[in-house]
Design brief:
Blueprint lengths: L1 H19 L1 H26 L4 H15 L2 H9 L2 H4 L2 H20 L9 E10 L2 E9 L6 E8 L6 E7 L2 E2 H14 L5 H15 L1
Antiparallel strand pairs: 1-2, 2-3, 3-4, 4-5
Helix pairs in contact: 2-3, 3-6, 4-6, 4-7, 6-8
Length: 201
């Protein structure tokens, strides 16, 4: 028990030392500035004027710029990515872009009046984690953490953790469950994604 306690104290002290290094602090600050800028753009689209189609197009541009969509898509497909043919990989990523935008923009009206408050930011391994609180009229505040890869050179969102739930882990679990129940067929998943887009489009 003594050795375990010493190890934990050492790990905690190391974490504090890393967090105190100027490079880590600057990376976290850059990530926070990136999230603030991206969040301001999204809020302006949601609360601003324009038709649903115009807002969807504007939202798509922000998402494709700010989110590592291909990287998240590959992560969500998990081990099945290697099983897919090059053509299936290409089609899957194309559809993943559409599904992501569709899911975000399907209920834009419900987010009218949305705002967010910046919280703390810190480094977690290679990524930065930026905490925010998202506020919607007639809804309780939601704690949302934004996971940012490469905050210094080319910051991109690689995950969103809402109230402790990782969206990319949830999506990966959903896809894996679907594939297991459909003979591990990536083609079946691609067809299901097409159907989802057509139903919500």
């Amino acid at each position: 028990m003594t050795h375990r306690r010493q190890f934990l104290l050492f790990a905690a002290a190391s974490g504090v030392a890393l967090a105190a290094r100027p490079g880590f602090a600057q990376s976290a600050e850059k990530a926070a500035a990136f999230v603030k800028s991206t969040g301001d753009k999204l809020v302006a689209i949601v609360n601003g004027p324009g038709s649903a189609e115009q807002k969807r197009a504007a939202m798509s541009r922000v998402i494709n710029t700010a989110v590592d969509v291909d990287g998240v898509g590959r992560f969500c497909l998990g081990r099945y990515w290697r099983q897919a043919t090059p053509q299936q990989q290409k089609e899957y990523l194309r559809l993943f872009h559409e599904v992501l935008v569709t899911n975000i923009t399907a209920k834009l009206g419900e987010y009218q009046g949305v705002s967010f408050v910046m919280g703390r930011s810190h480094m977690q391994d290679e990524n930065a984690v930026v905490s925010t609180t998202v506020n919607r009229p007639n809804n309780p505040p939601t704690a949302v953490d934004w996971v940012i890869a490469d905050p210094n050179a080319n910051p991109r969102i690689v995950d969103v953790v809402a109230e402790g739930t990782s969206l990319r882990l949830t999506q990966r679990s959903d896809y894996a469950s679907y594939l297991v129940h459909n003979n591990n067929s990536v083609e079946a998943l691609i067809t299901a994604m097409k159907n989802q887009i057509s139903q919500n489009g």
